[in-house]
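Hey L., structure's done. Input below.
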Amino acid sequence: MKNRLKVLRAERDWTQADLASALDVSRQTVNAIETGKYDPSLPLAFKIARLFDKQIEDIFDDEE
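Output:
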């Protein structure tokens, strides 16, 4: 699943560790989501969307 997480994080000048802390996940989880190796759970996707004040669809693209 493609996503804009890295771009959104960079716009706020956050490191992966900063974002991980805000989401209460590991930095490795943030890296895996950003690189498309891991799709977040629905609760985590909602948490990410709320953090960036976006709709889930604005951050994640299911590539269909």
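The helical segments are 5-11, 16-23, 27-34, 42-52, 56-59. The mean pLDDT is 96.

-- N.
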